[in-house]
Amino acid sequence: MKGADGERIWRFDASSTLSAGCRVSAPTIYEGLVVAGVHEAVSGGRDRLVALDAFTGQPLWIRTFEENEYIPPFPPVCLDGNVAVVDYEGKIESFSAATGELLWATVAGEAPAFPLVAIDTIVVSVGLSGKVRGVSLRDGSIAWSARCGDHPLGPPCTVPMQQGVDTVETMAMVSSTDEGAALFLLGLDGRMLERIDLCGIEPSGVVATKEHIYAAGKGGSLYAIDTSTLVNGGDAVIERFDASLYQSKGDDGEVAEDTAPGTPFISGRMAYVVFQGNTRDALVSFALEKDDAAEQEAPIPLALTNFPNPFNPSTRIAFSIARASDVEVGIYDSGGRCVCRFYLKGCMPGRHEVEWDGKNDHGRIVSSGVYFCKVKAGTLETTRKLVLVK
Hints:
By secondary structure, this protein is mostly beta strands. Helix content is 4%, strand content 50%. Among the domains are: 1-105, Lipocalin (Beta Barrel); 300-388, Immunoglobulin-like (Sandwich). The strands form eight sheets. Strands 1, 2, 3, 4 and 5 form a five-stranded antiparallel beta sheet that branches. Strands 14, 15, 16, 17 and 18 form a five-stranded antiparallel beta sheet that branches.
């Protein structure tokens, strides 16, 4: 793991800690833990689930699976003290995040197409043939199952939809069907609410805001589906966005028609999509309409947090801003004296991070105690208490 400045904090070598030939899957960070699956690529080897201390990299617990029980290289799902994984036969198991104890396991289902997704109190598993299962995080019981097309093209995502004065959580995913690609909209109880044909678009995964569901299509385009039309039972209104910025090496600035789109990523007023081709990949950005962007930015004009807290010897200070601004981050002692200050010029909307190493502006280590972090961005200002322990 690396710090904000790229300096290595610790390194976990599964081959030397566990056994030779181990490969570590994508990790999940959850409440001071780094949790990842480990595959032992030797004859008779067994897969493991490992939880590491996020600050030191030391193993806290290791769970060894049964012989011939293998888990895909997906990141685990962590929620409400549970760590859930799915194996290649579709069996979902949940372990205590604190101890690694097995809490529950489902029967085998369908081989998974994508990582598990946690939505509310349900873990959602999407099978290779389009079967979707919702499993209760509490006890592992099958809450519901549904069929979404013949072959899923991307993992599900939550869609907050406005119904009158209430916001209702739903779930969307894209699958291929006999007629072409289609978007399926389900309730959190597994009920099929809507099916929207996306023939000719051929998207992969989708991402949603309160106003729109976004999907990227072949050839470098982004499509937005107005969720208000779905709530009111009308025909889906689909808007196409053209690229506002294109970045790829050694070509003419156009996305080939045969490129495969990735799942969009939204940050502020922009959406970003990676399109993969046979000979080159392209990163394309799209400017979104203002109302949708404001929905994401308006609730928190200046947010501040830090991790860990209490800390020793350093802590990462993260803040989010809604508008571009110069930012000042100051660390003050309990007497109101500034001990350390960071200046960040021209910060763009979104999340930013600095690391305080427990030293003052002169490079001297400060004493343990309570400190206050004050962040100023334009006319906005917020403060957070920090606790340095030794």
